């Protein structure tokens, strides 16, 4: 198995894996990603999102990530947006190899954190804990999107004019 940064030819498989992950997370109808969007995001003129793939004869897993920043640490870190290994490849070490690749990026660049979120019911939590990760249960995630996001943005017109 090879772990490497994603290449443009990987995009169709990556999009398929994102949809497979959305299905697993019981949110398939919320996924709207297109190959064109992912290509522009990963390989456009100023990429801010990155991806590593686990490859045997074809991509079998992916780790899609971006940089975050900790004011307390004073350094960037990695936020792992999606880690996915296709069901037939689970148990092969692909997931651990992908997370290890990101840990190496952190070590090489002086980043002090590798963060991600996991659905409470996801059995992969045991895998993450076996790696030494701990759940941050004292932090409650929030998200502003859709109509509330648009309404808040519209309300700021008076503040920016």
UniProtKB/TrEMBL annotation:
<dbReference type="Pfam" id="PF00583">
    <property type="entry name" value="Acetyltransf_1"/>
</dbReference>
<dbReference type="InterPro" id="IPR051016">
    <property type="entry name" value="Diverse_Substrate_AcTransf"/>
</dbReference>
<keyword id="KW-0808">Transferase</keyword>
<dbReference type="InterPro" id="IPR016181">
    <property type="entry name" value="Acyl_CoA_acyltransferase"/>
</dbReference>
<protein>
    <submittedName>
        <fullName>GNAT family N-acetyltransferase</fullName>
    </submittedName>
</protein>
<dbReference type="InterPro" id="IPR000182">
    <property type="entry name" value="GNAT_dom"/>
</dbReference>
<feature type="domain" description="N-acetyltransferase">
    <location>
        <begin position="1"/>
        <end position="154"/>
    </location>
</feature>
<keyword id="KW-0012">Acyltransferase</keyword>
